[in-house]
Design goal:
Distance between the termini: 84 Å
Strand content: under 5%
Largest sheet: none
Helix content: 55-70%
Order of helices and strands: HHHHH
Number of helices: 5
Length: 142
């Protein structure tokens, strides 16, 4: 056995820390700024099409499969948006204006995705319950 090669345990070099394992073992390779910009453009395009899906399908009577698909896609877009906003804030040479964007655009789109996710998937109050609350609030205030 080669004495210069250290054995790495599952979970990283520090003996089982799962977070370290994920950050070390599944770290994506560095991407060029041009490729990142292309990914960002594709992300905005996907978010736009998700809004078409929301308007055409989810605002009517969506199936459980449609809701599950929306949950998955919206979650993935939010995750990428969080990453992209953080990356864009720290990368001096990114220059998003070269593709007509800004860090603020990325952050605003991510907030809209989060808001839409809550609108379609937060089931803390039903539509009927919300209607009752509004009726009580406006009837009592008169």
């Amino acid at each position: 056995m080669n004495p210069t090669v250290s054995k790495v345990k599952m979970g990283g070099h520090r003996g089982g820390n799962i977070l370290e394992f994920y950050t070390e073992e599944f770290r994506p390779g560095p991407t060029t700024i041009e490729v990142f910009r292309q990914h960002l453009i594709q992300w905005f395009f996907a978010a736009k099409h998700l809004r078409f899906f929301e308007a055409a399908v989810l605002l009517k009577e969506p199936s459980p499969d449609n809701m599950a698909s929306h949950r998955m896609v919206c979650s993935a877009l939010i995750t990428f948006g969080e990453f992209a906003g953080h990356y864009a804030r720290g990368e001096e040479n990114l220059n998003l204006s070269a593709v007509g964007l800004s860090v603020e655009d990325v952050e605003a789109e991510t907030r809209m995705l989060r808001d839409n996710f809550k609108m379609f998937h937060d089931t803390t109050m039903s539509g009927g319950e919300a209607e009752d609350v509004l009726k009580k609030a406006f009837n009592e205030s008169k």
